[in-house]
Automatic annotation (TrEMBL):
It is an enzyme of class 1 (oxidoreductase). Keywords: NAD, Oxidoreductase, Porphyrin biosynthesis. One of its GO terms (molecular function) is methyltransferase activity. It catalyses: precorrin-2 + NAD(+) = sirohydrochlorin + NADH + 2 H(+). Signal peptide: none annotated. PANTHER family: SIROHEME BIOSYNTHESIS PROTEIN MET8. InterPro entries: 4pyrrol_Methylase_sf, 4pyrrole_Mease_sub1, Met8-like, NAD(P)-bd_dom_sf, Sirohaem_synt_dimer_dom_sf, Sirohaem_synthase_dimer_dom, Sirohaem_synthase_N. This is precorrin-2 dehydrogenase. It holds the Pfam family CysG_dimeriser. Its EC number is 1.3.1.76. One of its GO terms (biological process) is siroheme biosynthetic process. Residues 150-204 form the Sirohaem synthase dimerisation domain.
Length: 339
């Protein structure tokens, strides 16, 4: 990456926009969704900007513009429509220190504005480092169709309930929220039964009961082959994102290792039968402690067999094998895979 993706806090902070025409209005339209204090530096404003000023959403600075106007700003957007003026204002802003975006001039930008999918407080930002904004908008359209329109309200509810969840499910918060966002509450939100979803979540917190989480989590053995990450099934990728602990062979590609959560513990599996046996024992120990375990291997049969054979005969161990381009298989413990 040549640009680091991040979110900038706007509460109690000033954002300056230079210019009063359509290009500036487009930036203000986006900024007005935040709680930033918007200052527009321009002698004249177009109708849309005047309307936002009359509504108290922005203030106008009509005087001379110098570094003092940019001091303390979180961000500056320069959109005068004049190439020479854009460079001059950008230089003035840089003297005051904030990050600067010059509209349609990526070579002058410290930051670029992404295409945004807004389900506040859930926000998805898509960027192409200024190289292909049309592609970013196409990706945005696809993601818009994937996310429920009311997803933000479920996220907001989750935010309000987090302190209560921390008290009721200390050490089990991830399992609780996994149930909320993949189980019955999410299904009710999709069906527009938001009240029913909230009642079910609150009842679980009140009763300190984790629905649908009895027993040990299955061990997910994910076969990567010698191919790239884009050939993994969607279910396999989802399991990588859910895993608390990731075991992986050295031959697994770097692009595949980019897929799991960054905070998941990662443990390398050594080459050879003895190393596989040791890894199998460690995996079963992690599972017995309540962790969600995923295993990345280039070929699944041998390792799934090693896991099954390492499990005690009395254990209720479920092993799920995910193969590229094929449905997953459930493998009982103490039973080899039959191809």
């Amino acid at each position: 990456m040549r640009a680091f993706p991040m979110f900038i806090k706007t509460t109690g902070r000033k954002v300056v926009v230079v210019g009063g025409a359509e290009n500036s209005a487009q930036k203000v339209r986006l900024l007005a969704k935040t709680d930033a204090q918007i200052v527009v530096c321009a002698s004249e404003l177009n109708a849309e900007l005047r309307q936002k000023m009359d509504a108290g959403r922005l203030t106008q600075h009509t005087g001379r513009v110098g570094p003092v106007e940019f001091a303390g700003a979180a961000m500056v957007f320069v959109a005068t429509g004049c190439a020479g003026a854009d460079v001059a204002y950008r230089d003035l802003a840089k003297q005051a220190g904030p990050l600067v975006n010059v509209v349609d001039r990526p070579e002058l930008c410290d930051m670029t504005t992404p295409s945004i999918v807004d389900r506040t407080p859930v926000v998805v930002a898509i960027g192409t480092e200024g190289t292909a904004p049309v592609l970013a908008r196409l990706i945005k359209t696809r993601i818009e169709g994937l996310l429920e329109p009311n997803l933000g309200r479920l996220a907001a509810l989750a935010g309000r309930l987090r302190p209560a969840v921390d008290r009721s499910f200390a050490g089990q918060q991830r399992a609780f929220w996994s149930w909320v966002f993949t189980g019955a509450p999410m299904a009710k939100f999709r069906a527009r039964d938001e009240g029913g979803a909230a009642q079910e979540i609150e009842a679980s917190i009140r009763n300190r009961v984790l629905p649908e989480t009895n027993g040990l989590h299955p061990i997910d053995v994910i076969e990567t082959g010698a191919e790239s990450a884009d050939l993994l099934t969607m279910r396999a990728v989802a399991k990588l994102q859910e895993a608390d602990v990731l075991f992986h062979e050295a031959a697994v590609g770097k692009d595949v290792l980019e897929l799991p959560r960054r905070d998941a513990d990662r443990i390398a599996i050594g080459d050879g039968a003895a190393q596989q046996k040791d890894a199998a024992q460690s995996i079963l120990q992690q599972q017995s402690s309540g962790a969600r375990v995923a295993v990345l291997v280039t070929e699944a049969n041998d390792f799934a067999n090693a896991l099954a054979n390492a499990a005690p005969t009395s254990a209720q161990v479920q092993i799920i094998v995910h193969r590229q381009g094929r449905a997953s298989e459930t493998v009982p413990a103490i039973q080899a895979i039959a191809e």
